[in-house]
Please model this.
Amino acid sequence: MLGSFNMDLVVLAPQLPEPGETVLGTEFLRGPGGKGSNQAIAAARLGGEVVFVGAVGAEDRKSVV
Model:
């Protein structure tokens, strides 16, 4: 499988904002994501034999924030 791999950025909040409302986040998380990598993980969990090919950049993790 050849596909995308990226870093997901997630902010946890106590509720979904209403249109035009600002809600402060309570926690910030980073984790692996991307359509291709998510599909590869799902296929492997279902018992498929998966080989994933992707490229990872050299940027500093701190610069993502």
Summary: The chain is about 15% helix and 20% strand.
